[in-house]
Amino acid sequence: MTAVTGSRRGRPGYDQESLLLVAVKLFNERGYDGTSMEDLSRKLGITKSAIYHHVRSKEELLRLAVDRALDGLFAVADEVQAGDGRAIDRLERLVRGSVGVLVDRLPFVTLLLRVRGNTKVERSALARRREFDRIVTDLVTEAAAEGDVRPDVDPAVTSRLLFGLVNSLIEWYRPRGGQPDTALADAVCAVAFDGLRRR
Fold it and tell me: If 97 and its partner were Cys, which of 47, 76, 120, 145 is the partner (CB 3.0–4.6 Å)?
């Protein structure tokens, strides 16, 4: 693995990025609370002090991980919000882009969706998730006002159902070589938007 630009270097063979990937794998397998720095040092075959060469704490590893997922989602949201066109089409672009982020950053998104607010980092991540949810709800509301979305379902409920569908992918999706994420996004959008669009 190559070092992330600006990351601190430590023992040869390890950098912040490779450390983060192992930590996220352990957090997803054992839970964040159930994973100690001792567990991480054993998995890596290095001392805890070598880990602290790269990061200050286990909580910093969690922050780096959930930010990786959230930053991807907000990059898609920013792009969609800066675009034009009907709200229903922007909403579909947001869903497609979010599926792409999930596929590209699956371990990080999985961890994000499992945080419960037990730490300051988790509470901050949940606050950012709520902000993302508001963006989705606003797009659904706008699409309903334009007459493109069924008016008989509350926009907040629609946005939760829509992203509940996207988020459920972490439970069963496993990347396979040669299968583009566009096929997965197509399937999600066909299921979601065929039922969502007003006829």
Answer: 76
